[in-house]
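User: I'm new to structure prediction. If I give you an amino acid sequence, what do you actually give back? Let's try with this one:
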Amino acid sequence: MRRRAPLAGMALHIAAVAAAALLAAACATVAPPVVLSGDLPPALSAPFYIEGRMSVRRGSEGGAAHFTWQHDGALDRVELATPLGQTLARLFGSAASVRAEWPDGRTLEARDWDEMTERALGVPVPVQGLAAWLRGEPRGRAPGTLERDAQGRTSVLSQDGWEIVYGYADEASIHPARLTLRQSQGEVTEVRLVIDRWS
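Assistant: Good question. You get back a string of structure tokens that encode the predicted 3D arrangement of the chain. For your 199 residues, that looks like this:
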């Protein structure tokens, strides 16, 4: 029977949560929030690759790491590293299973991202929705609200008990450069991402 690893040593799982949990600078909006409904189509599943930095805080505990995230349809690969480039952990996941690997050979497996984050953090986090949230899109057809800035980009998205705030490098930017994801159920969980590269 696997023991649950302590939160302080779960940089890789925290990163999974962070690997898409997002934002830091809210932009001004020009219209009232749009209420999301079941009539909305699912978010795009186009592949992407991003590199950046993240910090995660839950209650009085926190951590930071560099990350890369490769998303290709239903498959995701997340790698976490120290600021000096030393690998902390690797995560591989799909809708069918998620696996975490540490450099020392330890592994952790779960049937999905919710179970992985539940076991790692004690709170299920909708990581599968992060691929959509990262691009300013709602996750599937789940209800929520969405606000846009003067350029028509998503500035605040609330869904599944999370509020995601987006910041952009300049008025011409299409992709967000900073994101903050905040959940206030139980102990406050906050994840901040700075994205250095989109491709």
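You can read the tokens as a compact description of the fold. Here is one thing that stands out. The first strand starts at residue 34 and ends at 36.
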